[in-house]
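Contributing new records

If you add data, match the layout below exactly. Sequence lines come first and carry their own label; structure lines follow with theirs. Keep one chain per record. Anything else will be rejected by the validation script.
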Amino acid sequence: MLLLALDTATPAVTVALHDGRDVIASSSQVDARRHGELLLPAIDRVLAEAGVRLDAVTGIVAGIGPGPYTGLRVGLMTADTFGLALGVPVHGVCTLDGLAYAADLQGPFVAATDARRKEVYWARYSDSRTRLTDPAVDRPADIAEQVEGLPAIGAGALLYPDTFPKAHEPEHVSAAALARLAAEKLAAGEELPAPRPLYLRRPDAQIPKNYKVVTPK
């Protein structure tokens, strides 16, 4: 097994290689505006660090969000393209699940990433491997009662201490955690879903109202 994992659902552009036993190389850079620019060089860097060629990869792991439309699609399109070119399976893992796995917490807690527009993408967990709720997008004040008293992780939680007073790191997901989680699930015989994006809301870019289509006669 040689899994190439990547995630661009948060400001972190993160890549890792897992050889079936553990992560052998990884890279993470935080830049919310340069996902497309940073991802491929990060993949090249990780492959070089591990001393392997891309055609040695036996599977792709992609973070499926939730996340903003533009950033998320960079990672998913790259994962699909590599999967097709190499003829290897592409596995989807919820970005919040990777964040929760990296936290390695026992007992109930919340994972939350920044959804912008003064909202968070979030879900509740009973432990680092077990999600209790579907990922959702909400204003922090609107979910205060649901998360009251719970520890929280992620950039979304750190941004809103009034709602998440027990927030702490990790701030962003890492591909290393995604790779370890995926490898663990695959080794246990669990099927991972296809990498379908969790957008949860419409993209920021919208067709203007009263837009007129002009076609030649």
